[in-house]
Amino acid sequence: MSEHRATVAWQREAAAEFRRGLYSRRHQWRFDGGAVIAASPSPSVVPAPWSDPTAVDPEEAFIAALASCHMLWFLSLAAERGWVVDAYEDQAVGTLGRIAPGRQAITDVVLRPRIAFGGATQPSVAQIDELHEAAHERCFIANSVTTRIRIEACD
């Protein structure tokens, strides 16, 4: 097994009126490889100026993690089966919904991968569907959550 770490860091600005909720929620995610990501709540959750619409919000990161994990398994399985993937793009969408009074969750994620295959041998639609199913079964992130995840492969 392996461990994976991230550092989440926030600092109150000196003039912020913290007790009144008048403070920036902008923060940083730092990863062991050196990447630093500007993070913030979504402006739909915390309005500007207390959020930063240019930063990544946790909901976007969650959806990106699911899509990325699925893609990495798909690429690995395609290569294993002898197919060549030239390009893969997924415009994934997640839905934040109410699950109980005062509680919300990402209840649904739709992966919409668009894949271009190269090489002499092209997989059939059924083989591509099977690759998606296998990738979904192996994705660590998908296996870790209760969110409904659908794959709507684009041609």
List key phrases describing it.
about 160 residues, alpha+beta, GMP Synthetase, Chain A, domain 3, about 25% helix, 3-stranded antiparallel sheet
CATH architecture of the largest domain: 2-Layer Sandwich
| Percent range for β-strand residues | 25-35%
CATH class of the largest domain: Alpha Beta
Reported for the largest beta sheet, the result is: 3 strands, antiparallel
Number of H- or I-type helical stretches: 3
End-to-end Cα distance, whole Å, is 37 Å
CATH-defined superfamily of the largest domain: K homology (KH) domain
What is the rounded Rg? 19 Å
Shape: elongated
Task: Kindly report the spatial arrangement of strands forming the biggest sheet.
Answer: 1-2-3
Question: SSE order in H/E notation?
Answer: EEEHEEEEHHE
What is the count of distinct domains? 2
Unreliable segments (pLDDT under 50, ≥5 consecutive)? none
Please tell me the overall pLDDT.
95
Strand count: 8
Write down the CATH topology of the largest domain.
GMP Synthetase, Chain A, domain 3
Helix/strand class: alpha+beta
How would you describe the overall organization of this protein?
With about 160 residues, the protein is α+β, with helices and mostly antiparallel strands. The protein folds into two domains: about 1-55, GMP Synthetase, Chain A, domain 3 (2-Layer Sandwich); about 60-150, GMP Synthetase, Chain A, domain 3 (2-Layer Sandwich), CATH 3.30.300. It is built from three helices and eight strands. The strands form three sheets. Strands 1-2-3 form a three-stranded antiparallel β-sheet, with no helix packed on it. It is elongated. It starts with 5 loop residues before the first strand and ends with a strand. The relative contact order is 0.13. The mean pLDDT is about 95.
